[in-house]
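Task 17 of the worksheet. Students: predict the tertiary structure of the chain below and write it out as structure tokens. Keep your answer in the requested format; marks are given for formatting as well as content.
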Amino acid sequence: MDDWRDRLRGDPLPWLLDEANPAVRHLALRQLLDRPADDPDVVTARDAASRANPIAAILAAQDPAGWWEKPGHGYATKYRGTTWSLIFLDQLGADPAEPRVRAACAYVLAHSQAPTGGFGCSGANVETRPPPPGTVIHCLNGNLLRALIGFGWLDDERVGRAIAWEATAITGEGQPHWNAATPGPGFRCGANDGLPCAWGAAKALLALARIPPVQRTPAVKRAIAASVDFLLSRDPAVADYPMGYGNTKPNGSWFRLGFPSGYVTDVLQVLEALVEAGAGGDARLAHAVEWLLAQQDGQGRWANRYGYAGKMWVDIDPPGAPSRWVTLRACRVLHGLA
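Model answer:
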């Protein structure tokens, strides 16, 4: 048994590799068995995933022009609009070469980016002007950046502008464009009463960590370091990050592991971000790892307790049932820590 499975109560790998769910099988082959993208089994699973739900249902709902639900900036409605559909397709491992995926990336880059460089959380049905700068926020910018980088658009100048916005907004260096949604450095967020937001920090770090190390600018490296420092400034298993509006207890969503991931973040996603950023060996993660292991069932599986049931183009998992997707997330972290 591989080292990463030694702490599990059962071996979930055969379940994750079952051809009944080709999208999970595709990502398990890549992320748990470290198979290359051109491996015949990987190619077969990826092709099968494109023809099966949930990927097929999301792509089938897309307009030929590249948008979902309505044209425009793409944030509305949750969770069927253009930006959400693209974010979820990335998390599902959709094929970057699929023409409809490429059309979605092109549409988002043409319609969802504010003049300041970041992506705006506007749902306006407007194609003739960009989202207002005041709608740019860490969580959406991070989610879309991660998706666009994953789909192969890192070298696009517009992606570079969004990366530059993210790095500047995190560190406050250069000429940051503060707004109502992002009123200052260090993940300050208007949706969190102006306090630093760990949900946004996790999304931002996941995006920046996806940039290959050799392509990270000094500004990006400093932003990654600042993100790691912030997320490790609290015990992720407790998640008592700054809370606005008089809240004294962390949002319960921190402790409801789920899939896919919108703007909400859970304990597992903080682990994902820190592991991908190279901080998995930090001793301050030990409590969070123990918390994660305690959530598994007797077969080494995790349930989906935040699955957006009835809100997406297609449901991912039965609510509360053992989930291949959440189990894959957990196993990927354990594999990264091994």
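Marker's comment: The domain at 3-337 is CATH 1.50.10 (Glycosyltransferase). The chain has one domain: 3-337.
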